[in-house]
Write a structure and sequence with these properties.
Number of strands: 14
Order of helices and strands: HHEEEEEEEEEHHEEHEEE
CATH topology: Porin
CATH class: Mainly Beta
Number of helices: 5
CATH superfamily: Outer membrane protein transport protein (OMPP1/FadL/TodX)
Shape: globular
Strand order of the largest sheet: 1-2-3-4-5-6-7-8-9-10-11-12-13-14
Radius of gyration: 21 Å
CATH architecture: Beta Barrel
Number of domains: 1
Oligomer: single chain
Largest sheet: 14 strands, antiparallel, barrel
Length: about 350
C-alpha cells in the first residue's frame, strides 16, 4: 500500500508541479481554513501540535493518538450568504496507525435564474464537497508521516465536476522542547470530470512548511508558516496600478533600494504569522497576520484590520469549543465556530 501511495504521488507531482496562483485553479475551496484555530492564526498552519483534530486537514501528519475517537464539528459564516463547514472523526488502530475521515463543504447560497430578457425563471444553488480519508503513522518517536485522499464534487447549476487530490505530509514534534515543525504537499491531483468536456483545469497544488515554538518560561507561542512555495511572484498585477509596467517586468529606472524592497515584499507575501497567549492547557487566545491578504484586499483610505485575525478556545476533558474571526475585506469578515467531542470520555470501555 505504501509503495502504491509513493508511486501515485510521484506521478501526480510530475504532472502538476508547476506555478499556481489564485484564480487559475479549480476547487479553490480546498484552501479555506476549516478550523477556527487555523483561521485565527492567519489562515494557514501546518506545524501546530494543539489538540485540535481539524489541524489534520492542513497536514495529515498531525493526526496522532491524542485524537483517538474525537468528533469535530465546524461551521463558518463566511462572506455574504456563503457558508461552509467541516465534520471529522478519527480513530486509532493499534499497531496499524491513526485513521480519520472528514467531510468538507461550501454552500454559495441561492441565485436567481433569469433569461436574457430579464424574466425570472426560478432559483438555483451552488455547492462543493470534499470527502476526505486520512492516515498517519509514527516513523519515529517524534516524527510522523501522513497522507489524505480527497474525493471532490462540485456543482454550479448546470455545470458539474469531480476530482481526486492527495496531501502528503510529515510532522516533527518535540514536546520536551515545546517545538514542532511540519511540511506538506497539498492538493496534488486532477479532475476526473471537468465542467466542460475537454477542458481540464489544474487543482490548487501547493507546498507549505512551518514551525511552532512555545516559550518555556512565558505563556506565549509563535507560529511561522510559508505557503505558495511553488511560485515566487505572488504580486497582483492590475492595469489600474501606477506600477503596472514595473510589475510586468518592463525596463524602468527603478532604484536599487526599491528593488530590495520589492524582493522583501515578494518574500513576506509567502509568510503567515501566528501568535498565542496560552496561560494553561485549558485556554488560549490566538492572533494572526496575513500580509498577502492585507496587501491585496485593503482599501488605502480605510485599511482598518484587513489581514488580521483572532480567536480563543476552551479545552475541557469531554469537549472543547473554539471561535475565530478573520478580516478579509472592509465588507467581509468571517466567523468560525467549532466544538470537538472526546467520545471516549462519554462511555466506559469494556
Amino acid at each position: 500500500m505504501r509503495r502504491f501511495v509513493i508511486i501515485y504521488f510521484l506521478t501526480v507531482i510530475s504532472l502538476f508541479a508547476f506555478s499556481q496562483s489564485g484564480g487559475r485553479n479549480t476547487y479553490e475551496f480546498l484552501n479555506l481554513p476549516n478550523s477556527p484555530y487555523i483561521a485565527s492564526l492567519g489562515g494557514t498552519n501546518v506545524s501546530h501540535y494543539q489538540n485540535d483534530p481539524v489541524l489534520v486537514n492542513s497536514n495529515p501528519a498531525l493526526l496522532r493518538t491524542a485524537f483517538d475517537e474525537k468528533l469535530s464539528l465546524n461551521y463558518i459564516n463566511y462572506i455574504s450568504d456563503i457558508n461552509f463547514g467541516y465534520i471529522s472523526y478519527s480513530k486509532n488502530i493499534e499497531n496499524v496507525g491513526m485513521f480519520g475521515t472528514g467531510i468538507q463543504y461550501i454552500n454559495y447560497g441561492k441565485f436567481i435564474h433569469a433569461d436574457e430578457t430579464g424574466e425570472i425563471l426560478g432559483n438555483f444553488s451552488a455547492a462543493e464537497y470534499s470527502f476526505n480519508m486520512f492516515y498517519s503513522y509514527a516513523i519515529k518517536e517524534k516524527l510522523n508521516a501522513g497522507a489524505s485522499l480527497k474525493t471532490i464534487y462540485s456543482s454550479f447549476w448546470q455545470y458539474f465536476s469531480s476530482g481526486l487530490a492527495l496531501d502528503l505530509g510529515i510532522a516533527y514534534t518535540d514536546t520536551a522542547n515545546l517545538f514542532s515543525a511540519g511540511l506538506v504537499i497539498k492538493n496534488a491531483g486532477f479532475q476526473l470530470k471537468p465542467y466542460v468536456k475537454g477542458n481540464r483545469e489544474p487543482l490548487p497544488f501547493d507546498v507549505q512548511i512551518g514551525v511552532t515554538k512555545k516559550f518555556r518560561h512565558a505563556p506565549l507561542r509563535f507560529s511561522i508558516t510559508a505557503k505558495d512555495l511553488t511560485r515566487w511572484d505572488l504580486s497582483f498585477k492590475s492595469v489600474f496600478s501606477p506600477n503596472y509596467n514595473l510589475l510586468q517586468g518592463e525596463e524602468t529606472s527603478e532604484k536599487f533600494i526599491d528593488k530590495i524592497g520589492k524582493i522583501g515584499d515578494e518574500f513576506i507575501r509567502h509568510v503567515v504569522i501566528g501568535f498565542e497567549i496560552v496561560p494553561s492547557d485549558a485556554f488560549y487566545l490566538s492572533f494572526g497576520y496575513n500580509y498577502r491578504r492585507r496587501t491585496e484586499m485593503v482599501i488605502p483610505t480605510a485599511p482598518k484590520l484587513i489581514g488580521f485575525s483572532a480567536g480563543f478556545g476552551l479545552n475541557l476533558s469531554k469537549f472543547s469549543i473554539s471561535y475565530g474571526i478573520a478580516s478579509y475585506h472592509l465588507a467581509g469578515i468571517s466567523n468560525h465556530f467549532s466544538i470537538c467531542l472526546n467520545l471516549n470520555q462519554f462511555y466506559k470501555r469494556i
